[in-house]
C-alpha cells in the first residue's frame, strides 16, 4: 500500500489540482513515482519492520549513490522525512494497525500509530472564512469504529 500511496501522488495532484502530502505507514516503495510532485512525504516505520531494509537494497532509486533519483532528490531537498514510529512490526497484532496492547504501556500499536501521525506538522489548524476546520484522518475514523464495536 505504501507504493500505491506515493505512486498515486502525480495523478491526485493533476486531478485535484492540489498539493499532495502522502503519509506512508510502514511498507516500502521503489523511489521513482510521486516524489517529484509531492509537497512533502512522511514515512513512519517501526523498529521491527524489516521490509523497509529490503526495499533500500532491492530498488536502485533508493541507493544513496543514485543521486539523480526522485527519492534521493526529495531526501536532499528535505521533502522526504522518515521517522521511527515505535516498536511496530510490518503486520499482524504488533503491526501499525494492531489492537494488541504494547507491553509495559497502556496503548495499542494502533494508538501509537495514530499518536505519531497526529504529531506530524501537517495538522496545523486551518481556517476558511474564519470557521475552524478540524482535520481528521482515516486512521482516527477506523479507530473510533473499532472502539464502538467492542
Q: Would you give an account of this structure?
A:
The chain has 150 residues and is α/β, with parallel strands linked by helices. The protein has helices spanning 2-7, 9-16, 51-58, 70-76, 109-118, 138-148; strands spanning 23-25, 41-48, 80-89, 126-128, 131-133. It is globular and about 45 Å long.
What percentage of residues falls in helices of 4 or more residues?
A: 25-40%
Name the average pLDDT: 83
Strand order of the largest sheet: 1-2-3
Low-confidence stretches: 127-135
Morphology: globular
Q: Which structural class matches the secondary elements?
A: alpha/beta
H/E series, N to C? HHEEHHEHEEH
What is the count of helical runs?
6
Number of strands: 5
Strand percentage: 15-25%
- Domain unit count: 1
How far is the N terminus from the C terminus?
27 Å
Q: Give the radius of gyration.
A: 17 Å
Most strands sheet: 3 strands, parallel
Q: How are the SSEs placed, and which strands pair?
A:
Blueprint: H1 2-7, H2 9-16, E1 23-25, E2 41-48, H3 51-58, H4 70-76, E3 80-89, H5 109-118, E4 126-128, E5 131-133, H6 138-148
Parallel strand pairs: 1-2, 2-3
Antiparallel strand pairs: 4-5
Amino acid at each position: 500500500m505504501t507504493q500505491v500511496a506515493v505512486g498515486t501522488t502525480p495523478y491526485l495532484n493533476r486531478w485535484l489540482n492540489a498539493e499532495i502530502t502522502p503519509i506512508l505507514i510502514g511498507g516500502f516503495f521503489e523511489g521513482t513515482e510521486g516524489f517529484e510532485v509531492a509537497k512533502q512525504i512522511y514515512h513512519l516505520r517501526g523498529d521491527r519492520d524489516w521490509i523497509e531494509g529490503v526495499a533500500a537494497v532491492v530498488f536502485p532509486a533508493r541507493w544513496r549513490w543514485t543521486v539523480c533519483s526522485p527519492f534521493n532528490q526529495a531526501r536532499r531537498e528535505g521533502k522526504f522525512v522518515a521517522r521511527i514510529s515505535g516498536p511496530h512490526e510490518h503486520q499482524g497484532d504488533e503491526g501499525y494497525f494492531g489492537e494488541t496492547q504494547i507491553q509495559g504501556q497502556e496503548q495499542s500499536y494502533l494508538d501509537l500509530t495514530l499518536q505519531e501521525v497526529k504529531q506530524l506538522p501537517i495538522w496545523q489548524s486551518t481556517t476558511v472564512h474564519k470557521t475552524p476546520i478540524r482535520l481528521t484522518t482515516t486512521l482516527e475514523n477506523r479507530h473510533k469504529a473499532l472502539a464502538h464495536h467492542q
